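In response to a reviewer's request, we include the raw inputs and outputs for one of the modeled complexes. The two entities were modeled together in a single run.
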Amino acid sequence: MAAVRPPHGNAVRAGDIAEEFPTVSIDSNALGAVRLLAAHRLTGLVVSTGKSENPFTVLTAAQLVRFILPGYVQEDPALAGMLTESVADDVMERLGDKTIRDVMPSQRHRVPVVDADDTIIELAEVMSRLDSQLVAVVKDGEVQGVVTASRLLAAALEQ
Amino acid sequence: MAAVRPPHGNAVRAGDIAEEFPTVSIDSNALGAVRLLAAHRLTGLVVSTGKSENPFTVLTAAQLVRFILPGYVQEDPALAGMLTESVADDVMERLGDKTIRDVMPSQRHRVPVVDADDTIIELAEVMSRLDSQLVAVVKDGEVQGVVTASRLLAAALEQ
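The model returned the following structure tokens for the whole complex.
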């Protein structure tokens, strides 16, 4: 019996190398997002916007760092060296009742979307053209996972 | 006997939370950098430039993704769906005799430098102001490690 040949040849596809990645809703709690980023040491989270035109964006850890800063440092950076009582309490107070939508910068990063059947060359073309660290992989309208630039480099070296 | 009090109080300092991070020379091999990024799934590498004015820069995984692309795809992105024989061989051929200096974009990311004695509020102020995912921590002129934005968020939640 002849081996069943996959419909698109033996090339590695986006769906083969996609990894699970925390995806959060833009209306979920911002402090939860900080905890998720901190616990898993992630560079960013995929945020689903609920819009069909631009369904995903990225919230990076760097974008949340300003919420560590006490108000007096935001007004006068020279005061950053002063010691504060509890940084954690300050962060929780500033973010506790905010949603991700509230803390997202107005200029959002769009996350490119590729199909699970796309080849890694197609993935690389999209990532390179849009200068993105991250691509969402979608199958039948559902996010199957993401591919980071370093994951893609690893897959390219293996193929 | 009274406890010895650290010179700057009990606050967490940059040196306390700095993590080891691969630092490579700008004159080292580019393929080695790709392998390092791929193996450790890093977003980027700290590149030492040897210049006193701007000692560190970052080479991100996303900046290297274009070297996965065959020449014909760079000329015509519509050809990205074509199957190639071996992506890995192509990448090795394109990067094997190049240095990191050769593949760095002309517009480089500067890595902010903080002192090991700086507080995490000072760290957050620098990272937020320069919108950087990464800060190098220096003690007596030597790099002690780096602090990523997510590491800083984790430290802030613990303090």
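As requested, we also summarize the result in words. The first strand of chain B starts at residue 23 and ends at 25. DSSP finds eight helices and seven strands in chain B.
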